[in-house]
Amino acid sequence: MNNKINLGNILITGGAGFIGSNIIKNIIKNYKFNKIISIDNYYTGSKLNHLINRKVKYIRLDTRKINTTKNIDIIKFKPKFVFHFAEFSRIVPSFDHFEDCYNFNLQGTLNIILYANKKKAKLIYSGSSSKFGNIKNEHLSPYSWTKSKNIEIIKNFSEWFGLNYTIVYFFNVYGENQIKKHFMSAVIGIFEEQYLEKKELTVVSPGTQKRDFTHIKDIINGTMLAAIKGKRKEYQIGSGKNYSLINVAKMFKCKIKFIPERKGERFTSLSNYNLARKELGYSPKYDLQTYIKKFLEKHNN
Fold this sequence. Notes:
single chain; seven-stranded parallel sheet; 10 helices
């Protein structure tokens, strides 16, 4: 007997990216579904992340054009879930690429909200954990500001027009398919690439700032639980443990170089996944230290 949950039709934005590609892989492995459509503008996504499956279709499309496209697959599609990951997703680069950040995160997301509501689909939106840990101001960067505005829009849109949604907050995701050679790379991907190229690991000063690092498999597990069980609420998906950047760099057992402090970064982050545990049954399974140890073993061999 096959007891897998049937998710019906699913639209995933950013399906060729880090989070989106892992979501698709998880759905194929663990659930029944009718069809998955991924839309991606390939700003950071890659065709290398495509999965060959007759029920998965990849479409090159900007989220801002989802409601005006003439693509018949998008027009006729009736998704049960819309997973939205196609946004500008880094703090520091949002200062240098403000227009992209604004356009993708505000204009793009508004169009996804309109699409999901029109199709009567449940929207699963990834909020930014950058709002947590900033006592004085959650708007330390264009990125964190746009993400907070989208949370506000989603909640109001639900009150005004009945949008069904669940919001998940990701904390410093790392793991398979993470971006490495790109200005949008995150710290674990950067450290791995520097290690493989036998370079010094660049630690942002002062190095004592702490992050809650969460493995991609925990992120995907929490996101799927939120999609299926989540209500119109906000769930933090993290590891519940944080490490300083200098201590993470030391785990790689190579030389370290400090670089200047960067604008917009918060000093600490630590998830509180009590609500996710209580309502979704979420519990993190993976640890950063173990992950780095396995990475070193693999590449030293």
